[in-house]
């Protein structure tokens, strides 16, 4: 069959991510009851090689750890929080949180992707009781914007091209639905899981600046409010020999990576946040996370699932993926008083 081109090639990466996740679930690396209703025919697809399954496992565990840590912190502070996932694709995270131990801490969850992807996801949600029953009473769940959007009290799905100027692409956050999806007063976590690489650094910088400005201007500094957090998962160091192989594999599928120009180094990853005046930023490669942060008993468990003889190759692949996270604290109370 023909290889998709242009934006269709970018959108096709969502299917890869979903199939990789389902493969890791079928092999016993991960548990996720929501992937099957969201990606219906995926179980007919072949499983992924062990190396990909392990990579999916490490990425998923690391992101879950950071997201759950954020939710647990909000709970400790006694405030609810909201999460915005940009380029969310077929991600199941909302449903996993909504059935997990931190469900009461989540006030709102918003997902954004291209309209083709959100339309498909909205339909899958409407079709599945397992998915839709977690959004609230049926009368409170509405399709919007010609079926490209879905609104509910706790979950919103919005269509946008994130490469457009944020005043346009992010406008639905403030205007769509029976009430605006984005709450101005809640601590907010932004998730960019494998999406920024598909847009230029200028476009992703503009998105981060939009959120920085929005919460800076809207949130009073009390109760832990006004805190903005973000997690980015991305490929990096694509300039080395192995990186070039990765880039060429994607090129063969018509996927270009404007977000990887110039190739970021590990040291440069936190500047994603620091250049917007954020207070804290840290990065770890999946290689380091697997070695230093995954519980040894878990590593032992997954080593039993399937044979992997090429540990060096695994480490080489994992060394080209990183998770970067950052925090923007509210303006100091004194400064806020001066502005009042
Ligand atoms: N975040 C999901 C995950 O990790 O499973 C999906 C990742 S997938 C590799 C990339 C997603 O970003 C796709 O769903 C794609 O449609 C979306 N995306 C890429 N560029 C985008 C853009 N300019 N606007 C909106 N969505 C975009």
Write up what this structure looks like.
β1 (81-86), α4 and β2 (106-113) form a beta-alpha-beta unit. This protein is α/β, with parallel strands linked by helices and 340 residues long. It is globular and about 55 Å long. The protein has helices at residues 6-26, 35-38, 50-77, 93-98, 115-127, 129-132, 166-169, 172-175, 201-218, 241-252, 271-274, 286-292, 296-303, 311-318, 333-339; strands at residues 81-86, 106-113, 142-144, 149-151, 155-159, 188-193, 228-235, 280-285, 321-328. The chain has one domain (6-339): 3-Layer(aba) Sandwich (Rossmann fold). It has a nine-stranded mixed β-sheet with strand order 3-4-5-2-1-6-7-9-8, with helices on both faces. It has 15 helices and nine strands. Bound molecules: S-adenosylmethionine. S-adenosylmethionine binds at residues 10-11, 13-14, 17, 87-89, 91, 113-114, 117, 160-163, 193-195, 198-199. S-adenosylmethionine is lined by residues 10-11, 13-14, 17, 87-89, 91, 113-114, 117, 160-163, 193-195, 198-199.
